[in-house]
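note to self — DONT lose this again. spent like an hour looking for the file last time. sequence + predicted structure for the chain T wanted, 178 res
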Amino acid sequence: MEKLFEFIHAKLKVWIEQQKMFFVATAPSGSDCLVNCSPKGGESFRILNCNEVAYQDYMGSGIETIAHLRENGRMVIMFCGFEGPPNIVRLFGQGSVITEEDSRYGELIDHFPANEGTRAIIHVTVNRILDSCRFSVPFYEYKGQRDVLDKWAANKGEEGLGDIVVLRIGRVSMDCLD
């Protein structure tokens, strides 16, 4: 049976913080455009207060999430309980993209461990929390974080990474959004 929450309460906060992986989904407004769903992991997610969350958006993938958020801000973040009791929690809300040029970046980045592959912080004001559909989530064994992005970012160096951020974030204009 699904449960609807108005805010992230203490027990839910503890459960979310124990998860090793989460998924983010966004969609542009056009009916002929694609929904984007991306897996995320590492130490990249933070609960800021009972209705605000943020995560580090890393390089190395497309930039659909940022494009969709800049268009309409709609997003959902989903956590699955792959270990322990079955659970799925979805955080629905309005997301915004915080880059180094934004005055809020310095305050938000301090919540996360340093990571050279960070291209932005995604901030979400949560307006609906749903706990549902959990009984069919399979068990998975967590074996650890991958270091592929860290090695890639270190190899690119600060200058190389800066060029990529400017290239991608600076021209986030997908055909569906034009």
